Amino acid sequence: MEPGNSPSQNPFDPNQFKPNGERVKRSHWAVMIFLLVALIVLVGWLVVRRFKQATGWFHNKGNEVAVGKYGNRRFDTTYAQPFDPSVKAAKLTLNGGASIYKISDTTNQLFRADAMLFHSRYGLNGHKEDSIYTMDLTMKSKSSTQFGTQSDSVNLKLNLAPIWDITVNTGETDLDFDLSKYKLRNFKIDGSAGSFSVKLGSPFAQTIVRIGVGAADVTISIPKSAACRIEEHAAISSTTFNGFDKKVDGSYQTAGYSSAKNKILIYFVGGVSDFKVQKY
Fold first, then answer.
1. What is the spatial distance between Cα 145 and Cα 132, in angstroms, rounded to a whole number?
2. How many CB atoms lie within 10 A of CB 108?
3. What is the rounded CA–CA span in Å between residue 79 and residue 64?
4. Strand, helix or coil at 141?
5. Range of 251's domain?
6. Neighbour-count burial for 200-228, b at 16+ CB within 10 Å, e otherwise
7. Which of 93, 124, 149, 248 has a CA positioned 20 to 30 A from the CA of residue 103?
């Protein structure tokens, strides 16, 4: 070691000849630049996310096809899932809000929802396991700006081929589902308030319907020839079951229910509701 050199000094380090204050200043600048870049990235991510929410752009692992357009402060979009002939059963869950939901027509796709939206946006997720396709259409966001009193509406269409299990989780809703054309195995509504109208077809082996609502008007329509049993547990509700016989256990049944091969079972739990099962 040469005289005058400290063991801790590196003769090839140019910073050792600079004042400590200058080195500290450069270190502060480096930290500030890093923080500024991070802030720009964060703001950019938030802006992109906000834009996607505002335009209803929710792509979920390639399972959603959403094409939208604006018109008169309204966003029209379609969520769809192509049909796979290997799918024998389909499970659909609708997680919605204060909207109008309708099923009145079929589609050659597995599922299609044409939405006319003023206040909210949706996302469609789905996956296939063996011959069963499971999907959910879920309300993802609500606009902070309300345009008048128009209601969002979603018109759903289902394929006729699969056996269907449908679950609806929603708040205050106007729902009108014509399911008479489909092979329906399970149908469930969990809602708070609104108007729920459901039309069933001839039962597919055993069709189970579960209705749980708060303050709502519920009407279930069944074929005249369908064998049906109703079990209801309502707090303060009005019920109408024309064409049903009340049994000792408190249930209601159509004539010949016990010996029927195909049956509809309806379970109803309600608060202050008007519950009606009618024949067509």
1. 39
2. 11
3. 6
4. strand
5. 52-279
6. bbebeeebbbbbbbbbbbbbbbbbeebbb
7. 149
- Cβ(211)–Cβ(169) under 8 Å? no
Last residue of a domain, one of 5, 30, 51: 51
Asked if 68 contacts 75 with a C-beta cutoff of 8 angstroms, the reply is yes
Distance CA 152, CA 129 (A): 32
Q: Are residues 143 and 200 in the same domain?
A: yes
141-181: pLDDT as tens digits: 665 444 456 789 999 999 999 999 999 999 889 999 999 99
CA angle (163 as vertex; 206, 154 as ends), nearest 5: 110
pLDDT tens digits, residue range 212-227? 999 899 999 999 999 9
The reply to whether 181 falls in a domain is yes
Q: Residues 241, 122: one domain?
A: yes
Residues found in the chain: 280
**Minimal CA–CA distance to 110: which of 158, 168, 77, 181?**
158
- Pair 264, 222: CB distance under 8 Å: yes
Tell me the per-residue pLDDT of 70-79, one tens digit each, with 9 for 90 and over.
445 678 899 9
- Encoding tokens for residue 137? 């259409």
Is 233 within the bounds of a domain?
yes
1 in a structural domain? no
Same domain for 33 and 140, yes or no, is no
pTM for the model stands at 0.74
pLDDT of residue 56: 41
Q: What total number of domains does the chain contain?
A: 2
| For residue 257, pLDDT beyond 60 | yes
pLDDT in tens, 70-122: 445 678 899 999 999 999 999 999 999 889 999 999 999 999 999 999 888 89
